């Protein structure tokens, strides 16, 4: 026992932890071999990780699918070619040039890349993209995420003083944990990889006064936030914060202090250790957080979710059975999957509902809870599983209470599976510890006849509960499973889950009765969990030949040959959003998980499936003119109206049209109209204003900036002479005062100058950048230099310096002692 500010806290078995470190090399070798086998197609077949075969479902790629193609390897992973592959390429390009990816012109009419968070600019898992092509970098990052997560779990369980077999089991399970593995190409897995490190650092600080441990926790808090997915970071930091609070409260027993004294001491520890660590971690991530907050407040996601009285994003209750039979409703990587809708009409897909830690984990976790029920860490983790599962499935009362937590209304509850999986795996490690500890802890295990004795009934009860849950789900789902050709599949996987549960229970019984040695039990337990989770993850992220990664087509080559400044778009689901960026093209549409709210209005594009993805046929084509959309991709069955659109490339299944009425990227206006935001939207969407001649503004211009009326053709000229992501230069010439309109998204951080003198940006036509120009010739520049990034960068640098100073102070003190 050690005293921490008056509280007595049980110190983990550090001697055992030291011995475990010598075995870490063997485990890492095992982990590397397992992961290499998991992605063996890349090493033996020369394939790459990209999921770009999803493109063959859409024009213009559909006519160029490889021979025998029937479906993508996993069409649930469309986010990879749509979002994360293009983001990774753009981020890597900027970083290689020595710049931050502050803004990209490739989507949305302009997009604050750094602020969108999911570009994961500062995540360590983005580093491979600096030296590798994007497809290879995705694979390198995937491998690194799994290995880092396993290392963190090893350190955490070793910190708890569990037996070597328990540490090995828990780390092997987390290596292939289905949450990280199903999201391994997404930034969610980049966050879950650090979850064990947060708990490990928090546990160190519970028993330490060392400044270096404050720095350590602060570092991991910052890394979690910077990993690229704020919702998952939110969940990881929630469990980390709860761990600290429960740890301080639970370990006070026996200290001899009064309740008031214990509370005062706990507050002191929070304020002097954990508070500084949390603050430093958040400030370390300020370079990402401050721009993100600015973007969030202007996003579609914030506008739609914050209005909800109750969080509407739990998993469908019907998917609860997948906690023990993950393939119950099919598997998208196997070609058939049945998504479920929750009571709010939100679909729970295979990844969203992932809560399966492995049958062996469930059974051994029950053993661990009973065997080590006196340990506060076990009580905390068991409670975490129950609370996270209740939130995940929208249990009444739990969600209402959760809504009192700041930010709870905008997170996706279904992804609380990360907490369920991680917590249950640690509990299972406690179960393995009880069965394999050479010198059993008195409060958890007794010895009789030379064999560890633990209660077998928790394992039997868990398997019985599994069977009792699977049977009614089978009865309920039998008809629609049969109608979709899944009944045989589901019966087979259900039988396999039961067989696995019985096998684990048999091993536990044999070990508890002394008929199976501890080493043999450990090897078999690790083999069972590794085999189970490996089978689930095998080719869930399929690979494809490198030549199929964003393949070219005649239509795409035609557009790339045009050296002008223009945008492209797709009608319906043609040229799905963001994919144009992989070809160096600029798309009017976009998809980033946030979506600038004003963009959908100004572009007249529907917001469906989380993205401004659909240009509806024949509804708002005139807005494409305004937005400098020169080329439009469509299916062959979708005929765009002449003479506005001229077919320029026709191939099987797809047609490329040139928009003959597309505005230039920048143009001068001689008339303005003032309208409220709602009125301006009606004017633009209903095509009741000639946007070539007249701009719609929210407020009147000062008399000194009043635009001189100009007849058709007398507005003047505007020529873009330089166009980069964060800098635009335009030469203008007009006989009178004009409004220059640049059909790029207006956004905080853009600055304008006329002949070098600062100028005010006027928001025109709902969301575009405008500047009032005096008569004559002028050079207008737009520069993106957001204050939010500058503030965030200075805060991050200050935090990094403080963390280094704390770590150095701790090192210096330890060396003097």
Estimated structural class:
alpha+beta
Q: State the shape.
A: globular
Percent of sequence in beta strands: 5-15%
Q: Which sequence of strands runs across the widest sheet?
A: 20-21-27-23-24
> Major β-sheet, in short?
5 strands, antiparallel
Structure write-up:
With 817 residues, the protein is of the alpha+beta class. Among the domains are: 194-299 and 788-817, no CATH class; 552-659, no CATH class; 666-785, no CATH class. It has 26 helices and 27 strands. Strands 20-21-27-23-24 form a five-stranded antiparallel sheet, with no helix packed on it. A four-stranded mixed sheet has the order 11-14-16-15. Strand 8 (446-448) and strand 9 (451-453) form a beta hairpin. It is globular, with a radius of gyration of 29 Å. The two termini are 21 Å apart.
């Amino acid at each position: 026992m050690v005293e921490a500010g008056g509280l007595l806290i049980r110190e983990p078995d550090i001697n055992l932890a030291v011995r475990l470190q010598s075995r870490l090399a063997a485990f890492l070798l095992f982990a590397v071999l397992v992961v290499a086998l998991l992605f063996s197609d890349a090493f033996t077949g020369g394939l790459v990780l990209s999921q770009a075969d999803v493109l063959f479902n859409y024009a213009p790629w559909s006519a160029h699918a490889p021979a025998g193609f029937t479906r993508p390897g996993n069409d649930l992973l469309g986010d990879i070619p749509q979002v994360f592959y293009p983001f990774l390429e753009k981020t890597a390009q900027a970083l290689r040039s020595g710049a931050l990816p502050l803004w990209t012109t490739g989507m949305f009419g302009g997009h604050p890349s750094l602020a969108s968070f999911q570009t994961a600019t500062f995540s360590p898992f983005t580093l491979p993209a600096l030296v590798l092509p994007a497809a290879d970098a995705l694979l390198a990052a995937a491998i690194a995420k799994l290995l880092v997560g396993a290392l963190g779990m090893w350190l955490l369980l070793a910190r708890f003083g569990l037996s070597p077999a328990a540490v090995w089991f828990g780390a092997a399970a987390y290596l292939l944990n289905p949450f990280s593995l199903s999201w391994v190409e997404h930034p969610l897995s980049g966050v879950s990889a650090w979850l064990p490190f947060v708990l490990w650092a928090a546990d160190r600080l519970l028993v330490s006064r060392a400044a270096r441990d404050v720095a350590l926790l602060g570092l991991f808090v910052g890394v979690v936030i910077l990993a690229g997915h704020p919702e998952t970071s939110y969940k990881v930091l929630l469990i980390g914060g709860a761990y600290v609070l429960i740890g301080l409260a639970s370990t006070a027993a026996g200290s001899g202090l009064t309740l008031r004294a214990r509370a005062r001491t706990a507050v002191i520890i929070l304020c002097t250790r954990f508070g500084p660590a949390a603050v430093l971690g958040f400030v370390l991530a300020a370079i990402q957080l401050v721009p993100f907050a600015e973007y969030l407040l202007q996003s579609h996601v914030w506008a739609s979710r914050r209005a909800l009285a109750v969080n509407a994003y739990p998993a469908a209750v019907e998917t609860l059975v997948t906690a023990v039979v993950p393939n119950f409703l099919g598997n998208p990587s196997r070609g058939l999957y049945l998504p479920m809708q929750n009571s709010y009409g939100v679909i729970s897909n295979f990844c969203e509902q992932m809560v399966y830690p492995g049958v062996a984990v469930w059974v051994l976790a029950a053993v661990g809870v009973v065997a080590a029920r006196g340990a506060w860490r076990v009580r905390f983790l068991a409670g975490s599983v129950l609370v996270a599962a209740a939130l995940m499935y929208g249990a009444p009362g739990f969600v209402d209470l959760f809504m009192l937590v700041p930010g709870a209304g905008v997170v996706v509850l279904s992804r609380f599976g990360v907490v369920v999986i991680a917590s249950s795996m640690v509990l299972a490690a406690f179960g393995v510890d009880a069965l394999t500890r050479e010198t059993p802890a008195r409060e958890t295990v007794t010895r009789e006849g030379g064999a560890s004795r633990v209660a077998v009934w928790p394992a039997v009860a868990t398997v019985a509960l599994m069977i009792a849950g699977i049977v009614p789900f089978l009865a309920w789902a039998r008809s629609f499973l049969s109608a979709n050709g899944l009944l045989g599949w589901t019966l087979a996987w259900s039988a396999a889950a039961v067989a696995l549960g019985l096998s684990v229970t048999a091993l536990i019984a044999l070990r508890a009765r002394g008929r199976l040695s501890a080493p043999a039990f450990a090897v078999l337990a690790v083999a069972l969990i590794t085999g189970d989770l490996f089978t689930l993850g095998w080719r869930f992220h399929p690979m494809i030949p490198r030549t199929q990664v964003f393949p070219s087509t005649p239509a795409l080559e035609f557009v790339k040959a045009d050296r002008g400044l223009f945008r492209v778009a797709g009608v319906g689901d043609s040229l799905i959003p963001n994919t144009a960026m992989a070809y160096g093209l600029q798309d009017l549409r976009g998809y980033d998980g946030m979506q600038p709210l004003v963009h959908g209005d100004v572009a007249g594009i529907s917001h469906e499936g989380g993205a401004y993805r659909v240009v509806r046929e024949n509804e708002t084509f005139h807005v494409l003119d305004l937005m400098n959309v020169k080329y439009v991709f469509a299916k062959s069955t979708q005929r765009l109206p002449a003479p506005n659109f001229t077919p320029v490339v026709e191939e099987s299944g797809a047609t490329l049209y040139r928009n003959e009425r597309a505005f230039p990227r920048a143009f001068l206006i001689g008339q303005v109209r003032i309208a409220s935001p709602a009125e301006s939207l009606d004017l633009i969407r209903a095509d009741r204003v000639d946007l070539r001649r007249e701009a719609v503004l929210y407020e009147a211009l000062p008399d000194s900036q009043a635009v001189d009326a100009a007849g058709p053709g007398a507005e003047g000229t505007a020529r873009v002479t330089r166009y980069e992501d964060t800098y635009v230069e335009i030469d203008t010439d007009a006989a009178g005062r004009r409004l220059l309109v640049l059909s790029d998204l207006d956004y905080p951080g853009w600055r304008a100058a006329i002949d070098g003198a600062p100028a005010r940006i006027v928001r025109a036509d709902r969301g575009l950048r405008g500047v009032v120009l005096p008569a004559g010739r002028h050079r207008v520049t737009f520069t993106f230099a957001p204050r939010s990034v500058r503030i965030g960068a200075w805060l991050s640098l200050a935090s990094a310096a403080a963390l280094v100073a704390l770590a150095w102070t701790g090192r210096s003190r330890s060396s003097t002692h």
